[in-house]
Amino acid sequence: MDMLEKIYKAIHTVLATRRFFLLCVILAVLIFGFMFFFPIESVPGNDIRLQTSLYGAWDYAALMTLSILSSLVLTMQVYVLREGMDTPAAHVRTTAVGGVGVASGLVSSLFATASCTLCAGALFSFLGFGTVLFLVEYRWYVVVLSILLLCVSIYLLARRITEGCTVCTVSG
After folding, report:
1. In angstroms, rounded to a whole number, what is the distance separating the alpha carbons of residues 51 and 150?
2. Which residue has the higher pLDDT, 90 or 26?
3. Cα–Cα distances in angstroms (integers) from residue 9 to residues 1, 73, 139, in the given order
4. pLDDT score of 147
5. How far from the centroid of its chain's Cα atoms is residue 91's Cα?
6. What is the average pLDDT value for the chain, to the nearest integer?
7. C-alpha–C-alpha distance, residues 134 and 144, integer Å
8. What pLDDT does residue 56 have?
9. Which of 91, 110, 149, 163 has its CA 20 to 30 A from that of 117?
């Protein structure tokens, strides 16, 4: 089975169950809401009207893509844990890979939503001036890297769902 088939089969398996489908949709809406409203709440003087005027089509596309992929990773992770497909030896690796993917998605979405240098400076002032300027200049690279990490997380989880754990199998 090739990579795309594994991913399709695993996503279909997970989302075929009504509760996991609803979990995925709810998580996507919550993650999108968090990524949209975080700059509004954290930047003084920002409101919904100003934030929507700063966003372009690419910003909305990045927010939707990152929120859908992040919710899919989280839902697949919950499926693996709830269905007993995870063993203690593989639990740390699965959680780490999924966690890194989701965390990078959330962080990069904040970079993607910081459309202006002033907003990015207010959001990420703890990183220092030079780092903020670098991240503003290359924010789309950060977003693409995060999307790739989320896709790797989805593939690894799909492999776990379709094949089981091949690392920690115990031969009888």
Report:
1. 26
2. 26
3. 10, 15, 33
4. 83
5. 19
6. 77
7. 16
8. 83
9. 149
> Which residues, at least 6 apart from 153, have a Cβ–Cβ distance to it below 8 Å?
73, 97, 98, 100, 101, 102
- Please report how many Cα atoms fall inside a 13 Å half-sphere around the Cα of residue 109, on the Cβ side: 28
**Domain coordinates of the chain in residue numbers?**
3-163
* Local confidence band at 171 (pLDDT 50, 70, 90 cut-offs): very low
List, in order, residues 6 or more apart from 93 with CB less than 8 Å away.
Answer: 167
Residue 88 contacts residue 116 (beta carbons within 8 Å): no
Residues 6+ apart with CB under 8 A from 32: 63, 64, 67
21 in Cβ contact with 76 (< 8 Å): no
Distance CA 71, CA 101 (A): 11
Q: Is 52 left (phi over 0), alpha (psi -120 to 50) or beta?
A: alpha
| pLDDT tens-digit map of 147-162 | 888 888 888 888 888 8
Q: What is the dihedral of CA 148, 75, 110, 132, to 10 degrees?
A: -50
